[in-house]
Amino acid sequence: MLHLWSAKLETGLPKIDEQHKELFRQVGILMDRTKTDRIPETLKFLGGYVLKHFTDEQGIQASIRYPKAEAHKKLHTAFVAKFSELRKKFENSGDNLKFEVVTEINGTAIGWLKDHIMIHDKEFADYYKQYQETRLSGGGLRAPRPCSPATPRLWRPELETGIPKLDAQHKEIFRRAEILLDGTNEETMSCLGECLAKHFGAEERVQAEIGYPAAGAHQRSHNDFRRMFKDMHNKQAVAAPADRATAARGVGQILAGWLKDHIVTHDQDFADYYINYRRGGRKKRGFLYRLFHPFSSA
């Protein structure tokens, strides 16, 4: 029952990926109407396996002092509570309602797992791989990488929006986040601030021009990060020289995590609307096209 699994859910950590696949296999059994007799044992197995998987992840995070370990654990705890609630609901429901409850469990488990892997587990996996890379190189900081046209290591194909120029801007922000993760100076922070301001402003102008219905929520997400980045920038600027590289890496981690989440939850919806808007025949030549469409003509 691996039809629920897809390559885009891979984290690059073999043990974690195998556990994720097993979770999807078990959920697949719940979805199979020909195996209703196995539902109670499958729910019991899932409950135990979820706890094992979460414990394994949290153990790894503790061993590498993952900065977001506590927040990650809270997400796990919330899911365990929800799963336990639904399992009790199944046990207490009549036979005529049991499959309805199983359907609810399926939807909750599949939706949560996919979102959790795409947003949180991949971020953890990136941190873990960087940790291992640094340790194998002798534990020292690697030299900062200059921005280059190469695809940044934090970028993943599933983050593409389908708008080439928008994707290029996202990649550029990830490149700058990677420089922060390697340790950086005040100049890089200022440059990143300008890059974010330009990107956010461009998105918001396009959304206003095409009448994007969720423009207000999208801008609020931008504004929340603007305030957070300003605060982090100020703290990094006044930190002792010996602490600035550590502070910069913290900014890089937060930026990379926020951007991945923002692309998945906001930018991809905006991109879908924008692409449908263009297909609808209401094409505006000028700023809108020059900004996001590399093959447009005036």
General description of the model:
The chain is mostly helical and 298 residues long. The chain has 2 domains: 130 residues, Up-down Bundle (Four Helix Bundle (Hemerythrin (Met), subunit A)); 136 residues, Up-down Bundle (Four Helix Bundle (Hemerythrin (Met), subunit A)). Helix content is 73%, strand content 0%. It is built from 9 helices and no strands. α2 packs antiparallel against α3, α5 runs antiparallel to α6 and α7 runs antiparallel to α8. The longest helix is centred in the middle third of the chain and has 42 residues. The termini are far apart. The C terminus is likely disordered.
CATH topology of the largest domain: the name is Four Helix Bundle (Hemerythrin (Met), subunit A)
Give the total of domains.
2
Q: What is the distance, rounded to the nearest whole angstrom, between the alpha carbons of the first and last residues?
A: 51 Å
The proportion of strand residues reads under 5%
**Measured on Cα atoms, how large is the radius of gyration?**
22 Å
Largest sheet, in brief, is:
none
Which CATH class of the largest domain applies here?
A: Mainly Alpha
Element pattern in H and E: HHHHHHHHH
Number of strands: 0
Structural classification: mainly alpha
Fraction of residues in H or I helices: over 70%
Total helix count? 9
Give the CATH superfamily of the largest domain: Hemerythrin-like
Architecture per CATH nomenclature, i.e. the level-2 architecture of the largest domain: Up-down Bundle
Quick check: average pLDDT? 81
Detail the poorly predicted runs.
138-150, 283-291, 293-298
Q: Write down the overall geometry.
A: globular
